[in-house]
């Protein structure tokens, strides 16, 4: 029975860990990020992986700097057969990589979308396919040799949460398959010339300018519920769909209103708006918003 050290932090990693715990593999210890303050009251909150680990009485470590010598010593003493890494949030040093084969589960078809936001990037680019790659880690960022890839067709109705759930399910199964077949797999070097990169999402990425309806929809799919999409004034658009990819309009202009739906123009195309959320207020229907503001056809939502 192979012995595993697991490194991960968010729900994506938790789901992978859950499958490991139900398998024939022994999880010796968990390394996860430190607890963080959450919400307006800044309540110290443990990462999902830690919660699951505690529920299963697994040894847990939460170092601020994994590469510090005391953490390397802990890993050497654990002497695992594999280190499995999923959205951990820290880089593994060469000292750690030399302890055991380190397998990372990355939510893209590498070398496409190396970096912090591969799921959002697939939606922003309007991709029809994505997947999860298991790779043998090296000192680079998502540059290690590919072990196995599981692919997934992206449904055009999915927002990031839907795609996240589908990829999480795939990642758990791919982890087990990779570990079980590890000795039979020939690692395949990535083609760096084909590599693309994606950075961490920031709040400002959600701002829309109503230039293109297609681009507004892509941002909506990638950034709902966080950081959400919003106009320069801070007005969030929480329930929209594409009305048309063609036609030229004034940006943000209300073209028509039909019950609980407003058609809003973009420089190219138009979108249907059902719900929105004014800054510092609760979500509401477009109808309630327009009535409250006493605005209608010909006015703008910029």
What's this entry about, in short?
The protein is of the alpha/beta class and 302 residues long. It has helices spanning 11-21, 48-55, 69-78, 94-97, 118-124, 160-180, 213-223, 286-293, and strands at 3-8, 26-31, 36-38, 43-45, 59-61, 82-86, 102-106, 114-115, 129-136, 145-153, 197-198, 236-244, 254-258, 261-265, 270-277, 284-285.
CATH architecture heading of the largest domain: 3-Layer(aba) Sandwich
Number of DSSP strand runs: 16
Sheet having the most strands: 7 strands, mixed
* Sequence stretches where pLDDT stays below 50 over 5 or more residues: none
- The helix-and-strand class reads alpha/beta
Helicity level: 25-40%
**Residue fraction in strands:** 25-35%
| CATH class value of the largest domain | Alpha Beta
Q: What is the terminal separation in angstroms?
A: 60 Å
Radius of gyration: 22 Å
């Amino acid at each position: 029975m192979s012995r595993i050290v697991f490194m991960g932090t968010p729900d994506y990693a938790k789901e992978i860990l859950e499958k490991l715990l139900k398998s024939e593999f022994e999880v010796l210890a968990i390394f996860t990020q430190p607890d963080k303050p959450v919400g307006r009251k800044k309540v110290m909150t443990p990462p999902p992986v830690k919660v699951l680990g505690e529920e299963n009485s697994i040894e847990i470590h939460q170092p601020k700097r994994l590469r510090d010598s005391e953490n390397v010593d802990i890993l050497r003493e654990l002497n695992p057969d594999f280190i499995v890494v999923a959205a951990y949030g820290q880089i593994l040093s060469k000292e750690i990589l030399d302890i055991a084969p380190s397998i990372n589960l990355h939510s893209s078809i590498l070398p496409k979308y190396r970096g912090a936001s591969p799921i959002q990037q697939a939606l922003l680019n309007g991709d029809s396919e994505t997947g999860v790659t298991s790779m043998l880690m090296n000192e680079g960022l998502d540059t290690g040799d590919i072990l196995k890839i599981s692919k997934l067709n992206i449904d055009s109705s999915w927002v990031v949460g839907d795609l996240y759930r589908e990829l999480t399910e795939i990642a758990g199964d791919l982890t087990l398959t990779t570990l079980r077949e590890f000795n039979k797999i020939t690692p395949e070097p990535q083609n760096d010339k084909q590599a693309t990169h994606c950075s961490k999402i920031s709040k400002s990425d959600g701002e829309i300018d109503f230039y293109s309806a297609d681009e507004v929809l892509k941002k909506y799919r990638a950034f709902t519920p966080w950081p959400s999409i919003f106009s320069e004034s801070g007005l969030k658009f929480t329930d929209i769909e594409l009305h048309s990819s063609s036609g030229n309009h004034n940006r943000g202009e209300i073209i028509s209103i039909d019950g609980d739906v407003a058609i809003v123009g973009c420089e190219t195309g138009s979108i249907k708006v059902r719900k929105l959320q004014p800054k510092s207020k609760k979500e509401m229907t477009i109808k309630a918003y327009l009535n409250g503001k006493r605005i209608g056809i010909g006015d703008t939502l910029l």
